[in-house]
Amino acid sequence: MRKNRYVQILFGLLCGAWASLPARALDLEKAKDIYGPCAACHGEFGAGGKRGEYPRIAGQPAKYLEQQLKAFRNQQRLNFPMYPYTKERELPDEDLKLVAAYLEQIALPTRWPDFKDSDDALTRLTAMEKVMIVPRAEGDIENGKAVYRKNCASCHGKAGQGRAMFPMLVGQYTSYLKKQIDAYLKAERPHDEEGSGEGVLYALKAGDIQDTLAYLTSIQEVGQ
After folding, report:
1. Separation CA 36–CA 193 (nearest Å)
2. pTM for the full model?
3. Using only C-alpha atoms, what is the Rg of the chain?
4. Residues 125 and 90 in one domain
């Protein structure tokens, strides 16, 4: 009996140790290969288009990216350029999850790097290409802060970093966010509630939305 009890304890300890081991490291080479076609629009580091024509996807929560890629594939979210790349024969679930996890871990700094004298030209160029600073948007930042914290922070996080199925907003192009808000308001893209004319965005005035966008551009460094 005592021997069996010791075996049970040992087994429990081993299970606990296994559970605490870090998850298997990403297959970066495979992830980069999968991401290759996406870079044509979203850039090598997932920073998107400089005018916001393509969104920043670097740093977005993996679960959110998975959800959106599947929505493109199933045409629940209509985007004809995305559909060919997300069809199952082009992007099976295993690859979809891998590329989403890869993008989540890409960090884009909001400050210009400090270089060492020993850094070569390629190192300097690569580091500078990763810097992402969204231009400040006009608006009442204090009002935007109040509106954001009351209506948006519970899902998108206090610093706008997003979580789980909710996207990161801070560090995203203002023009892209405006475009998506318009799509939500026109019921062209579903938001957090079903049906047209419902949800938190419909209750906000245009000025409050602009102020919120201004606030988000003011906290980029906080969100990093």
Report:
1. 34
2. 0.82
3. 21
4. yes
